[in-house]
Design a protein that fits this description.
Blueprint (H helix, E strand, L loop, with lengths): L4 H19 L10 E11 H6 L6 E3 L2 H13 L8 E14 L2 E13 L5 E16 L2 E11 L13
Parallel strand pairs: 1-6
Antiparallel strand pairs: 1-2, 3-4, 4-5, 5-6
């Protein structure tokens, strides 16, 4: 499995664009990073390690993601988070006809309305990414967070 440096640069840029859409509150762009039949889920590491299939959040296609965004914008009442994502150690863990598998560490800082920043969540993305005519898209994005609980409301995508 040899991934060319140009492809790695494209994948890093794609990941950066993904987190910028969330950090810049462009949630309507978020489903566009996924294939229509993509999987997105957020699951605690404990469940992942024990093989327990209970995620905290699961969207089984982009339509469910668009519905989640509509709900966040129009149906739910909550303090809007101010996220800043930081990524590290993006490595390719596999590549085949299904796409390229990546593992990337993440850290999300949240700043509240009083101006205090704290670590909201850390973990790892496990992604399956495919190149399409429209560019790279997630076929699967699994967000596996390190802590056993979430500090505050988990409303926005990670």
């Amino acid at each position: 499995m040899i991934i060319q440096p140009e492809t790695l640069a494209e994948l890093r840029y794609f990941q950066d664009e993904y987190i910028a859409a969330i950090d810049d509150d462009r949630l309507e762009d978020w489903p566009g990073f996924f294939l229509e039949d993509a999987l997105y889920e957020i699951i605690p590491r404990e469940n992942e390690d024990l093989g327990l299939p209970a995620p905290l959040l699961r969207c089984e296609n982009a339509a469910m993601m668009r519905d989640r965004v509509a709900s966040l914008r129009h149906a739910n009442i909550f303090e809007q988070p101010s996220y800043r994502h930081f990524l590290s150690a993006m490595i390719v863990t596999g590549a085949d006809d299904a796409g390229i598998r990546l593992r990337t560490n993440y850290c999300v800082l949240n700043t509240n309305i009083e101006g205090s920043s704290s670590v909201y969540q850390t973990g790892v993305y496990r992604d399956l990414i495919r190149r399409t005519e429209a560019g790279w898209r997630f076929a699967e994005k699994r967000v596996i967070y390190d802590t056993s609980r979430v500090q505050t409301l988990l409303a926005y995508p990670i």
